[in-house]
Amino acid sequence: MLGENFRTLIPPVGAEIRDRFLTEWKTSHAIQPVSSDHVDIAVGNDGWTLPIPLVKTSKGWHFDTRAGAGEMRLRRIGRNELAVIQAMLAVYDAQREYAGKDHDGSGVLAYATKLSSSPGKQDGLYWPTGPDEKPSPLGEAFVTAGARNAGQSGYYGYHYRLLTSQGPHAPGGAYDYLVRGKLFGGFAVVAWPVRYGDTGIRSFMVSHAGQVYSNDLGPDGAKKAAAMKSFDPGPGWVKESP
């Protein structure tokens, strides 16, 4: 029905999203005509439609798996980008929480210089904790979020990296956040797609000011983000609403 590559389109048995689909199917399902030769299958009561459309050709009705794969990619990108905006705000909140405590015994309050802490230290926003300990500001999902290996899945399809200065287009102008190896003056983080055009399109930035910005850096966005030294939302960067 879906062709020889159906496994790339359907979640495996036991997957949560598959079970959720079956539950919604039992609740409600209907055919929604788009045109005389194109219909969508609506499932559940929230307006969700199956990404693989039914189309009519000279051979009759069939599932258009090529169009379905494209629609699934677009939906995945949309979900990831919305999730990344929230992830950026989570980093913002985590940095503010982190800076409220002395984590190295120096008596100095500063922002974290890493997303994930070094072994045995609390120099990042995540560190392992026991069942009776207060959780670290960020969750374990950010352990590999900063990995630049394209084989890593990142977090919601994105890699993340902290920035230690800001440029002339940032509120307050250009200056360094680092003073004697500690982040005093502020913080910023940039996120870019693990696979451009597949896990995401736009790249994102946020600083201690709390405003998230986005920009389409193109297929070479990973290189541009890796070379980025400062939070500098100049031309091309637009404000995002949470």
UniProtKB/TrEMBL annotation:
Pfam families: DUF2950
Entries under InterPro entries matching the protein: DUF2950
Protein name, as recorded: DUF2950 domain-containing protein
Organism of provenance: Paraburkholderia saeva
